[in-house]
Design goal:
Elements: E1 5-8, H1 12-15, E2 20-25, H2 32-36, H3 41-49, E3 54-58, E4 61-66, H4 69-84, H5 91-102, H6 107-111, E5 116-117, E6 123-124, H7 129-140, E7 143-147, H8 154-167, E8 173-178, H9 194-213, H10 215-224, E9 227-231, E10 243-247, H11 255-262, E11 270-275, H12 292-296, E12 302-306, H13 316-335
Parallel strand pairs: 7-11, 7-12, 8-9, 8-10, 10-11
Antiparallel strand pairs: 1-2, 2-4, 3-4, 5-6
Helix pairs in contact: 3-5, 4-5, 7-8, 8-9, 9-10
């Protein structure tokens, strides 16, 4: 593959402003359609993302001129690497690679990272730079905190990493837990025994397991005790060795519950704590996730990964909703 070549633009009048020139040669003509998109929709998206630059295509040569010419040429090079790995590009994927390029992150390293193959044959991999940092942190740390808005894949990727660790025999069991916070209705009004009452709180974790392992595979492992899904209250007094433990919705723990959970981690275990500090339902607002980085940020073996709206992998409108709420909160804070 041809590495992008950069040089100073000699004719300022041609460019309209002083900039640089970079050229990238696509190594095979058959990659051009996937790279540029149908009706050049990928090309148009990249042009829109870098409005102060000019991009032109001559056969299988892409010319870039402007202040970010080299960054754009390298972006095309990364997209070709993604295509050569067997993945297809679409508008959503290209949009995410633009965000990565702006952060000087290599999209090919993110999108070609393999975490797990699901029961449906789908390859689970990070889709954003934040998700890649999250997966790397889980792999290298004993305890990892994933903090950020809804739709960023915090819980799903944590469960995927747990299943991968189980399948590779890094751990002997998976324990998934959430705090059962009453919101509007008291648990006593719900039918059934205690597990039936808390089951709705644990349903998102079941959904991730069923998607990754299939309903039958998940049920079989739960019957064996290899996978345990339980409310946080069931963790008290236990020491969890050789386990991959996930605490989901951690913003709804109290500081005391958070300390209790963290001190359950035993030898050979990993723990992942996920939460969104903008969705606290714990009574009195005393969340165990607030201020936790100030307490544990310097402890070896503990990592903190913060997600933002660029890491949202749901419908585009979810990122817009998060952005709108952030702007509203900023206005309210300014008025105060």
């Amino acid at each position: 593959m041809t590495t992008p070549v950069q040089e100073e633009v000699p004719d300022e009048e041609t460019v309209g402003a002083k900039g640089t020139y970079a050229e990238f040669v696509v190594p095979s003509n058959h990659l051009m359609v996937g790279l540029l998109g149908g009706r050049d929709e990928h090309l148009r998206l990249i042009e829109k993302a870098f409005p102060e630059n000019a991009i032109s295509v001559r056969g299988n040569v892409i010319d870039c001129t402007g202040p970010e010419a080299l960054r754009i040429a390298r972006l095309f090079e990364e997209l070709v690497l993604v295509l050569q790995s067997g993945q297809a590009l679409n508008v959503v994927t290209v949009g995410r690679t633009v965000d990565m390029a702006r952060e000087d992150v290599r999209p090919s390293e993110v999108l070609n990272t393999h975490v797990l193959r699901s029961a449906k044959g789908q390859t689970i991999r990070p889709n954003t730079a934040g998700q890649k940092r999250y997966c790397d942190a889980i792999a290298s740390s004993t305890i990892t905190f994933g903090i950020g808005p809804a739709g960023t894949g915090k819980s799903y990727l944590a469960v995927a990493m747990a299943v991968q660790a189980l399948q590779s025999r890094q751990v002997t069991r998976i324990i998934l837990t959430r705090p059962a916070v009453e919101a509007g209705e008291r648990l006593g009004f719900l039918p059934g025994d205690l597990m039936a009452k808390v089951d709705p709180y644990l349903r998102p974790l079941y959904d991730a397991l069923f998607d990754l392992l299939g309903p039958e595979g998940s049920q079989r492992l739960m019957e064996r005790g290899t996978i345990e899904v339980a409310p946080l209250a069931f963790m008290r007094g236990r020491t969890l060795n050789d386990a991959f433990i996930i605490l989901d919705e951690a913003q709804n723990t109290s500081p005391e519950q958070m300390k209790m959970f963290l001190t359950r981690v035993g030898f050979g275990s990993k723990a992942v704590i996920t939460g969104d500090v903008t969705q606290i339902d714990v009574p009195g607002g005393r969340s165990g996730l607030i201020g936790i980085e100030d307490i544990l940020g310097d402890v070896d073996g503990i990592a903190f990964v913060h997600f933002n709206k660029r890491d949202v992998v749901r419908h585009r409108i979810v990122a817009d909703i998060i952005d709108a709420y952030e702007q509203a909160d900023a206005r309210l804070h300014h008025e105060r």
